[in-house]
Amino acid sequence: MQASGVAGRLETALRPWVGGGLPVRLRAWDGSEAGPLDAPLVELRSRDAVRRLLWHPGELGAAQAYVTGEIEVHHDLDEALTHVWKVAQERGLSGVRPTPGAFARALRTAVDVGALGKPPRTPASQAQVKGRLHSKLRDRRAISHHYDLSNEFYSLILDPHMAYSSGYWRSEDPSYTVEDAQRDKLDLICHKLGLEAGMRFLDVGCGWGSLSLHAAEHFGAQVTGVTIAVEQKKFIDRRIRERGLEDQVEVRLQDYREIPEVTAGYPFDAVGSLEMGEHVGERNYGTYARVLHEAVKPGGRVLIQQMSRSGGRNGHPGGGPFIESFIAPDMHMRPVGETVAFLERGGLEVRDVHMMREHYVRTVDGWLQNFEANIERLTELVGEEVVRVWRLYLVGGSMAFRDGRMGVDQILMVRSGAGHTLPAVRTS
Asked: pTM, whole model, 2 decimals?
């Protein structure tokens, strides 16, 4: 029997767009339903949900409606998104081009259900970053949008190290946690860099200081960290004082292009940069590579950990319309081979590339468990809309790494001009 009401009309109008019947069970604001009974249930709570999809078809409109609560998914979000993604792949929907007649029918349906009109207000949680792309001012604003929510917010999601990058999972034991994986990641990096007591170490884009503090406390390094996130610097400075590391760790509120040691010819013994290269942009990546090269002494080691992507899906190298609009504006990812080429052109000799994609799946899943366990306090801190943004972000991110659409890699390099001390036999 053909479905009736708003849901039935929408199902008919959407058929050319979804390559057949609905992949979900659809419930409309009038209570009508359409679509398979055994599929995830998606509720359109108001006409604004349809209006957003008319103005921003696809991922962005759906994300806007979800974070504002105009769309609700009455199902496990991961399972629902995985199901929809699988159907889209099976039907080849990336290549679907509806006819002019399909467009006309969709508009008539929108009129019939009262959904045609001006675009709804942009969600408050959506980034509004202005200025010249990857100028220092715009970069600070883009970073602030994501990282300055509050230190307490991130402390409720991340592990006690406050490491906001993929961990390194060395055990399948259920008692082995995200905290353990982050500790083992930090150890791995410090060993790869050959850090020893007294070595001068530069942490570019130091985040909340997990690597800077670990390198000082456990390897005796003299650490300089740089960040452009105000809240991060406040957090690290407090931890430095609490741990009595004032003589070993200095953190600066400083752009990577403004590190004075680079221009003064006073290079560091080793340099690390964890998941910061995604934020410098395609046009500036050569500059970033040269800064890493100039910041380390000849023969010194450089290690970056960076997310990779097989290609800018539909012209979205930052991960898609949702990520680029709500999470990390101006982010740019590329295949790992292209990043290696940038670094080599910057003068660095690439010695090892360590793929860690599966480790990120487990890391994000751990963050998601923390997120759900602390949902009440998180909602108090940032409100329901930002909480919905983050649930979609964490679930979608885990899926992207799980399904191979994104990866994460550690790239170890040395600066030529002097003999290096890398072992001839790989030990880790």
From this structure: 0.92
